Amino acid sequence: MALRKKRRIRLRGRTISKGVIHVQASFNNTIVTVTDARGQVLSWSSAGALQFKGPRKGTPFAAQAAAKDAISVVDEGIMKRAEVKIKGAGSGRDAALRTISRSNIVLSFVRDITPMPHNGCRPPKKRRL
């Protein structure tokens, strides 16, 4: 697991009282984004950015590594409290949440924002013989 070289960080010596950690866990990849209260991205990471390739990107270990890499920027006392929003049904959602809860950031709440269809789309017409 190699850490990525270039980091996209928008912190200029400031402390953030409250932020939002977004976790998007699909079956193929897990993306973790750390934002401030206004929604501006402070840091992000994904399993693919950490050099996990192919089917290993969808594993819980890859999600754990992505979450650890994303919150390592704000874990050094820069962000005090955060709320977590989890989207998706991938296998990495629990591992990412477990890693975030073990950090020094106090979690105010954890919300599942996975989109759920309310009866879905209309089915196609039946085939006539």
TrEMBL record:
GO terms for molecular function: rRNA binding; structural constituent of ribosome. The keyword Kinase does not apply. Its main location: plastid. GO terms for biological process: translation. It is found in: Plastid, Chloroplast. GO terms for cellular component: chloroplast; ribonucleoprotein complex; ribosome. Gene3D superfamilies: Ribosomal protein S11. Transmembrane segments: none annotated. Keywords: Chloroplast, Plastid, Ribonucleoprotein, Ribosomal protein, RNA-binding, rRNA-binding. It holds the Pfam family Ribosomal_S11. SUPFAM superfamilies: Translational machinery components (SSF53137). Signal peptide: none annotated. The keyword Signal does not apply. It comes from the Eukaryota. Part of the 30S ribosomal subunit. Belongs to the universal ribosomal protein uS11 family. This is Small ribosomal subunit protein uS11c. The gene is rps11.
